[in-house]
Amino acid sequence: MRITLITLMLLLTSLGNAQRGKHGSKTISGTEVINEYTSLSADATSGTNTITVVSNTLNANGRFSGALTSGDLILIIQIQGASINGQLHPTFGDVCDPNNPTWGSINSINNCGNWEYLEVSGTTGGSTINLRCGIEHNYTSSGKVQVIRVPRYTDINLTGTLTADDWVGVTGGIVAFEVDGNTTINGSIDVSNLGFRGGSVAGNNGSLDFNSNWFAGTTQDKGGEKGESVVGDWLTYQLIGGRFAKGAIGNGGGGGSSHNAGGAGGANASDGINTWTGLGVPNFITASYATAWAQEGIVVGTQSSGGGRGGYSWSDNSNNPLTTGPGDGSWGGDNRRSIGGYGGRDLDYTTGKMFFGGGGGGGHENNNQGGDGGDGGGMIFISSYGTITGTGSILANGENGQSSNYTSAGFGQVTNKDGSGGAGAGGAVYVTSPSTIAGVTITANGGSGGNQVLDFGSFASSNEAQGPGGGGGGGYIKTTGISSATNVNGGIYGTTNSSTMSSFP
After folding, report:
1. Which residues make beta-bridge pairs with 147?
2. Rounded Cα gap, residues 339 and 259, in angstroms
3. Whose CA is closest to 61, among 34, 81, 87, 26?
4. Which residue has the higher pLDDT, 136 or 8?
5. For all residues of the chain together, what is the average pLDDT?
6. For residues 285 and 280, what is the distance between their CA atoms, to the nearest angstrom?
7. Among 442, 425, 424, residue whose Cα is nearest residue 433
8. Chain Cα centroid distance, residue 2
C-alpha cells in the first residue's frame, strides 16, 4: 500500500509540472513575437543545474501569463566568442598587420554556436534559474549567450506572421517554440534580416587614400566597416585592430577598401564542396564575363564557399573591361583595383552548432552616397511532436546590401558615386518532427549585393564606376522529418549602371 501511495504521489508530482502543452492552443493572425529574452551573466559549465541570468522572470513584455516557473522550457545559445587570427602589428601595437591576408580567419569556434533546450524546475532570487537536468555544453557569458523562454503549445495555427525581437547585440533574432500536437502554417515564420548586422558604409570624408590595400584597419579612410560575425561586433573589431577594410572576419563580409570599392557578402554554412578564398562565385555563364574575369587571372571554374566578393574600386575613364584588367593605370581614378571586400567565411555545422547569418560589409564612400552591408538571417527552432502542414513559409533570409542609388542628381550633377554594400547571409532553421513537413516552404537564402545606380542630372555625363556589393552566402536548414521544399541559395552580386561597364556590370 505504501509503495502504491508513493508511486501515485510521484506520478501526480510529474503531472503537476505541466510539461508539454502547458500554454494551450495558439492562433496567430497578425504579426506577433512569442518569445521572451534575457542573457547569461556568468559562465555556465557542463553538468551544472543552475544558470545565472540578467533577469529570471523572462516576461518583460507580458508575452506569457506570468513569470518563469517550474515546467517551463528555455533555449540557451551562445551567439559569439570565436577566436581568430588577428594579431596586432609587431611594431604598432594598436593596429593589426594590414597586409596579412589570413587576418580574420577562425582559429577556434570555442563555445560559439552551442545550444540546447532546458526544462526549468524553478527560480531563485531575481537572477538564478534552476534546471531539471544538468546542462550539456559549456557557455561563456562574454560570448553573448541568450536565454530564451520557449512557449509549449498543444497546437498552433498560423495565418499571420510570427517573428522575433531584433538582434541588438545582446538578445533577439530567434524564434523558438514547442508543439505537442499539430502545427499549421498558412502564414509565415520570418526571421529574415534579424541576424548579424551589416557593416556601416564608411568613408574618408574627402581625404583620398589611393593605393590602400589593407585587409584591416581602425580608421574609416581604409575602407567600409566589416559585417558582424561569430567573432563579435564593430567594438570587438576595433579592439583587435580591424574594424574597417576588405578582409573578412569570421563569417562577416569585408568592407570595400578605399577608394569606393564594394562591400562583401556575409556567410553562414559551408556548401560542402568548395574551399574559402573570399572571391565568391564568379559568373562564367555569360561569355563576356569569362573574358573579363580572365583579365584578373580568374579562370573558369573558380569558386569559393562563403560570401561574395565586393566590386572594384573607382575608375574614371572610358575603357573596355574585356581587354583591360583591373589595376591598369589607363582606368584613371583609383585604377579600378581589385580591392572589394572579401566574402565572409563559411561555418562548420557538422558538430550540431547553430549560427546567425553573417552581416555584409559596408561599401567605401567619400560622397556620402554609398551603401551599408545587409543584415544576416536569424534563427528558428521548432520542436514538434505532431504534424507540420500548410501552404505557408519559414523564412531566415539575409538582407540585400544597400545600393548607392538614393540621391537624385541636380542640374549638371552625377550622384551615387560611391561603393555599395554587401548582402547578409541566410540564417539557420532547425525543425524536429516525427512526420513529413507537408506543403511548407523553408528558405534561408543569402541577400543580393547592393547596386550602384548612377543618377545623371540634365546635361551631365560621366565615365565613372564604383564597386557594387557582393551577394550573401546561403544559410542552413536541418529537419528530422522530410520537408517538401527547402532553399539555401547564395544571393546574386550587385551591378553598376555605368556605361563604361555595360559589357561587365
Report:
1. 38, 76
2. 9
3. 34
4. 136
5. 92
6. 15
7. 442
8. 58
pTM summary value: 0.95
- pLDDT for the residue 481: 79
Residue 283: CB atoms within 10 A of its CB come to 14
| 300 burial via Cβ count (<10 Å: 0-12, 13-18, 19+) | exposed
pLDDT at 99: 77
Alpha carbons 444 and 129: distance in angstroms, whole number: 33
CB 249 within 8 A of CB 233: no
Per DSSP, the three-state class of 395 is strand
* C-alpha dist (Å) from residue 266 to 117, 229, 505: 28, 8, 21
Instruction: Provide the pairing of β-strand 128-131 with 50-52.
Output: antiparallel
As a whole number of angstroms, the distance between CA 370 and CA 364 comes to 7
Average pLDDT estimate for 35-40: 99
Strands (E), 320-384: 364-365, 379-384
Q: How far apart are CA 59 and CA 253, in angstroms?
A: 35
Please name which of 138, 130, 117 lies closest in space to residue 35, comparing C-alpha atoms. Answer: 117
Domain ranges of the chain: 151-505
Strand partners, 37: 148
Instruction: Answer yes or no: is pLDDT of 94 > 90.
Output: no
Q: Position of cell 563604361?
A: 500
| pLDDT of 413 strictly over 50 | yes
| Three-class secondary structure of residue 498 per DSSP | coil
Among 245, 261, 304, 272, CA closest to 101: 245
